[in-house]
Amino acid sequence: MKNIRLNDGHEIPQIGFGVFRTRDGEECLNAVKWALEAGYRHIDTAKAYENEGSVGKAIRESGIPREEIFLTTKLWNADTRAKNCREALERSLDLLQTDYVDLYLIHWPTENREIAWADMEELQAEGKIRSIGVSNFMVHHLQELSKTAKIVPAVNQIESHPYFNNRNLIDYCREKGSTVEAWSPLGGSRTTSIRDDETINMIAKKYNKSAAQVIIRWHLQRDIVVLPKSVHEDRIYQNIDVFDFELTAEECEMIAALDRGARVGSHPDHFNF
Ligand code: A2P
């Protein structure tokens, strides 16, 4: 698997294992355990997922050295609003049983985000966070942050999949040197329609791969960091088994052309959490 070099020099594996909506306890423990066995070395969690304890336990029990795993967690909105960044990070580190995270993200662009960013710049200098970034920031949020920030976000983690490319935002992030990560890369859990899409399934048939594998491959070929999630062992293995085929430029364009501006998650200007 390819690593991508972030603007601060750190490297991030291009496929990360997502654990959104993966239940704390056995479900999450098993999922992360299978992911590490399957070869994922990048795990993406968040305080709001309420499963950092299981993620930490699974990593610890795997016996894989901590430095071989790229670990991301996120500052939750209540903590951003309450200017609680430092305490929130400490709590996450305790649950994750580690003394640093590879990447810490402001989960959503709430009020006081510029204060959280300044705190994160300090925590990075102290070595508790290797790379600092944001999530769900639109162009105007990034522009505003740049007025007070000393450091350009290493990452912006945003919704992106074949029915919602988010192209303009991706282009903007790249222009500024921020790496883009895609959440709900397979279209999320609320709908199966992207994985049922006729064009994607036609391409999948050609390569004897699943629709999910074709979508993951498309993200990789767009140089996006892709964060598929699953709680099923077979799918966890399947989603990283994407290095024995390559989509043609025409097929990538066909998939991009499926864009219909259809978000599956909240709009970053209109969320109520
Ligand atoms: P499950 O966890 O039950 O396997 P996204 O990564 O876009 O958030 O989408 C994840 C959704 O797609 C989840 O509901 C997950 O369900 C499902 N999923 C993940 N991998 C596959 C796969 N290889 N084939 C079909 N569905 C998948």
Give an overview of the whole structure.
- By secondary structure, the chain is α/β, with parallel strands linked by helices.
- It is built from 11 helices and 10 strands.
- Helix 5 (113-125) links the parallel strand 6 and strand 7 (129-135).
- The radius of gyration is 18 Å and the shape is globular.
- Adenosine-2'-5'-diphosphate binds at residues 18, 184-189, 195, 210, 212, 228-232, 235, 238-239.
List the helices and strands and how they pair.
Elements: E1 3-5, E2 11-13, E3 17-18, H1 26-38, E4 42-44, H2 52-62, E5 70-75, H3 77-81, H4 85-96, E6 101-106, H5 113-125, E7 129-135, H6 139-145, E8 155-159, H7 167-176, E9 179-183, H8 198-207, H9 211-221, E10 225-226, H10 233-238, H11 249-256
Parallel strand pairs: 3-4, 4-5, 5-6, 6-7, 7-8, 8-9, 9-10
Antiparallel strand pairs: 1-2
The structure holds adenosine-2'-5'-diphosphate.
What characteristics describe this protein?
single chain, about 270 residues, alpha/beta, eight-stranded parallel beta sheet, two-stranded antiparallel sheet, about 40% helix, binds adenosine-2'-5'-diphosphate
